[in-house]
Amino acid sequence: MRSPKLTPPISPDFITVLEQAVCAYRGEASDRPPAAALVNALLEAEKAAKQQKLTYPFTSLLGQWRLCFTTGTRKRKNRGGIELGRGFYVPKLGAAHICFAATDIAVGKGKISNQVQLGGLLLKFTGPARYLGKKNLLAFDFTQMQISLFGRIVYKQQIRGGKSQTEDFYNQAIAKQPFFAFFLMTEDLIAARGRGGGLAIWIKESSL
Predict the structure, then answer these.
(1) pTM (2 decimals)?
(2) For 28-53, what is each residue's pLDDT tens digit?
(3) Hey, what domains does the chain have and what are their CATH numbers?
């Protein structure tokens, strides 16, 4: 098995496309790749990761990441099943962040938070997570919801069983949990396929 690397030996062609997208989203470059080109780059990166059997340590995920691009999925016309959506850059007006923190890094246990902010309104979901390094797969569950207005918490509530669900989380089968299958991690970005089949890119904002 290959040793973990932050910069995998992937063709410069798709690395260039992905890095260009990150720079453009951050405002460091003016030209951003078209959505179709970015989707193709992600698919090539995913394929390369599987062929090269790349693995990444849990520590590469830790920190806060901003959602930059996502595809989602859509139903196939007249054939059934689903396929990738066209993909789109997430509008900067609504900042969406995901954050990973470790609670026991030796066994891949941690916490996840997912939040969306629109002006002074912040909606945040948090819960347990676990990372399977051999598969680059992170399973998670959201057990608490919080709403803040201009930095002040106005609502906080346990959801989906709350504390009891969190305690039982690590005993549940991965097949029953939401997950992200990561296929690319660098110092600037992470990319994954969700359980539903969609692809996404997050860019680094801060470390933990």
Answers:
(1) 0.88
(2) 988 999 999 999 999 999 999 999 99
(3) 12-206 (2.40.128)
